[in-house]
Amino acid sequence: xxxxxxxxxxxxxxxxxxxxxxxxxxxxxxxxxxxxxxxxxxxxxxxxxxxxxxxxxxxxxxxxxxxxxxxxxxxxxxxxxxxxxxxxxxxxxxxxxxxxxxxxxxxxxxxxxxxxxxxxxxxxxxxxxxxxxxxxxxxxxxxxxxxxxxxxxxxxxxxxxxxxxxxxxxxxxxxxxxxxxxxxxxxxxxxxxxxxxxxxxxxxxxxxxxxxxxxxxxxxxxxxxxxxxxxxxxxxxxxxxxxxxxxxxxxxxxxxxxxxxxxxxxxxxxxxxxxxxxxxxxxxxxxxxxxxxxxxxxxxxxxxxxxxxxxxxxxxxxxxxxxxxxxxxxxxxxxxxxxxxxxxxxxxxxxxxxxxxxxxxxxxxxxxxxxxxxxxxxxxxxxxxxxxxxxxxxxxxxxxxxxxxxxxxxxxxxxxxxxxxxxxxxxxxxxxxxxxxxxxxxxxxxxxxxxxxxxxxxxxxxxxxxxxxxxxxxxxxxxxxxxxxxxxxxxxxxxxxxxxxxxxxxxxxxxxxxxxxxxxxxxxxxxxxxxxxxxxxxxxxxxxxxxxxxxxxxxxxxxxxxxxxxxxxxxxxxxxxxxxxxxxxxxxxxxxxxxxxxxxxxxxxxxxxxxxxxxxxxxxxxxxxxxxxxxxxxxxxxxxxxxxxxxxxxxxxxxxxxxxxxxxxxxxxxxxxxxxxxxxxxxxxxxxxxxxxxxxxxxxxxxxxxxxxxxxxxxxxxxxxxxxxxxxxxxxxxxxxxxxxxxxxxxxx
Length: 749
Known about the structure:
By secondary structure, the protein is α+β, with helices and mostly antiparallel strands. The chain is 52% helix and 14% strand. The chain is built from 31 helices and 15 strands. Strands 8-9-11-10-14-15-13-12 form an 8-stranded antiparallel sheet, with helices on both faces. The protein has a 4-stranded mixed sheet with strand order 3-2-1-4, with helices on both faces. α4 (92-101) packs across α5 (103-109) and α7 packs antiparallel against α8. The protein is elongated, with a radius of gyration of 32 Å.
């Protein structure tokens, strides 16, 4: 099966038609008549079961009877032999008129090919077709897009269907035809050399399917997959379906990219195509795509690819294909273990929800995912030939991460949830191994290589190993039996682990589909988790900062002291200051206006002073302030000489000029902590400039004292914990704590 056979088949039909045409010419007299191939046959390639698509062109001089006689003489021998012929009979004017009103006819005429008869009539008709197509392209192309969307909704995505339609499904042969038609409009350039292998695979599989099924069928059903695989010398049906999926993904990726570029030509809703917008060091937005800045030295920045991907996903825009190609060629290897900044960029990318899919696919198509994470190579387009799963293994894990992104407010470690979601099935595709157990084995070196500490590595191993546990127990065991609860707690011994496993189970189930996850099953799992939580001690608030002897002595001195240390691109800022109302808000404001991006912080009161340790990244566009400058700004802020709200509002305004992505709403929780005689306020939300300043200002405005704070930014998610009291040092009452939490939540939305 291949191009040569399809061309030989087409040539054979040509010869047969030429003979029939000449025999029928006695009925056409001196009239101008041309026999023309259209559609797939027009390309000069014919599959074994394909229809013979022809157009009989005439000059209109024949009587109706003579024309009918000519057509019958030409076609009846074909029909009598059982050949499937799709034909139309038109004049040049009728052809032009029909094409004007029917985009499918117009597309078919773009591939017309002369077989025999009056060549001049064919040439003028072909010229008409191409001229009309270019002239009316802006009207035709939206119709092509709608047809493609309708097919996708009706038939599904070829790459992820168990029994895909090779022609009609998204990423199939119809979409290749659409791409060729769009290219002929002249509105956008399309690089077809990326598509040749994908098209060849899909056409060869379709040919083999026609042979094995004995008919013109385009749906590759289970019963034929093994036969087709043998016909094409694949090892088995899994290898066949993997190659089909890869081909379809290449087609779909190029088509989606083409739609995006056409949208940028048509619309300037968010971006000015002539204007370059700088996002961060080395990254710009041009034409609505995120690109590497011209002249940027990629070879000196191994993290720039992840930075670009994370920024594109969070802004809700595509990552330029040219940038992906450039990164694939020039990006240096990532240091091992990964720096924390690189790992957080990956988490930021994963946490972008549905917008992550388009960016991830672009990276995957250019081999960047495999470059960063070699384990992905085995998983790529790995089929799951069972009725429960609707996606290949890799796409299922991506979809699980998408669903997990909507659950980040339900856990204390969203970074671990997102990473576990993306790699929970990493052990699939090894026939001699249980995928959960083997996945846990693979997760250990993977997580270590990406720089997770030993405790986090153990958590990720456990999540992968037990990701099916809650669903299995909830649906197969008696939840009223104490032994059932004990069996779960033995494996999942803390509430923190349980909340992560619960969120992972939900995300995995939702990504699998309704066949595997229903409201009934979700309720059973929730009931199991609630019973397990009741048997555990509950989740403890984050530990407060432990002070060193040096910090204690400095705090007791009661002076304002600022230290700033830079290490591997991160800044450690240690501040000891006399405690006062609004101190946390002031320091958060100072760090924000000096362009620090706080990644973590711990603060604690000691006597009449506050000790604060901050870890932050610095904006690429600015130089770091000196400790003396920070000290002066803190003093000015405490004296009320800086309008932090106005300065931070300007940063937020710049941050909001891009469309961004939908994110779950903020969640603020009040917890009574008897061990510290304080009320704990937990804030979980999407990070943004000045967030901690906003939170601390709200606390100060409510006349509440902050005794300690633990700040953590994981990827794009902020998790801030404040230990607060009344002015007299007593915990907030339950009613006031809940009221404050609700008010802060509303303020942060």
